[in-house]
Write a structure and sequence with these properties.
This protein is of the alpha/beta class. It has two domains: 108 residues, 3-Layer(aba) Sandwich (Rossmann fold); 90 residues, no CATH class. Helices cover 54% and strands 14% of the residues. The strands form two sheets. A five-stranded mixed β-sheet has the order 2-1-3-4-5, sandwiched between helices. Strand 6 and strand 7 form a beta hairpin. Helix 5 crosses helix 7. The radius of gyration is 21 Å and the shape is elongated. The two termini are 34 Å apart.
Length: 214
């Protein structure tokens, strides 16, 4: 299974650099013990109370895209502190990332209080997503009733003699520009009769953007 090592210190002091080296060495041993395939070792010097960390945000993007399944850190404070830690854990859990720590000598275990907070956050987020999707579907149904024809935006392409699944690519781009996630876009399109997965939406959007850039 693919894993990422994340080492963080809060200052630029020399002894903190030594701490990063020590974290990395110990986490490599932990990965070897659990037979994990390390795809990247990422280090960062930033406050644990801040969410504005470039390397951490890159890790979350990779988690969303399914580039790895395990995140190795010295302990939970390396992820963050206070509210920042809870927000990060919530995202990692949502993307099915398992966190391994040296302090637990394996998979990180949430405290009962942390589990309660994350359950509440997940429930609220789920209902917000459902409300958001219902609004999108209602808007799309009204647009279709008023004469909008999403099939006009279809972009059929062949690949090795096999026809790709039909998708309204321009509609995907429009919805993505509205800040919808690929998950929400897939749900919206399924409501319009397009049997399409989140992965397909993501892939077609990426292909379209790459072709546009070229």
């Amino acid at each position: 299974m693919k894993a990422i090592i994340y080492c963080r210190v809060s200052t630029e002091k020399e002894e903190q650099t030594t701490s990063i080296d020590r974290q990395k060495a110990e986490l490599l041993k932990l990965a070897h013990h659990f037979e994990l395939d390390i795809v990247q070792c990422i280090t960062e010097k930033a406050s644990g109370y801040s969410l504005d960390r470039n390397e951490l945000l890159r890790i979350l993007d990779m988690a969303r895209d399914g580039d790895f399944q395990y995140l190795l850190v010295q302990d939970d404070t390396r992820l963050g502190r206070g509210k920042a830690k809870m927000a990060i854990l919530h995202q990692l859990i949502k993307y099915n990332i398992k966190v391994y720590t040296l302090s637990h000598n394996g998979e990180y275990t949430l405290t009962e209080a942390d589990e309660m907070v994350l359950d509440i956050v997940a429930t609220v987020e789920e209902y917000q997503r459902k409300l958001h999707n219902m609004k999108i579907k209602r808007g799309m149904r009204k647009a279709v009733e008023d004469g909008y024809k999403p099939q006009r935006n279809l972009k059929n392409m062949s690949n090795g003699g096999r026809e790709k699944k039909e998708v309204p690519i321009l509609e995907i781009v429009r919805l993505k520009n509205m800040k919808l996630t690929f998950h929400d876009i897939a749900i919206t399109l399924r409501g319009l009769g397009y049997e399409i997965s989140k992965a397909t939406v993501h892939r077609r959007y990426r292909e379209y953007m790459e072709n546009t850039d070229n």
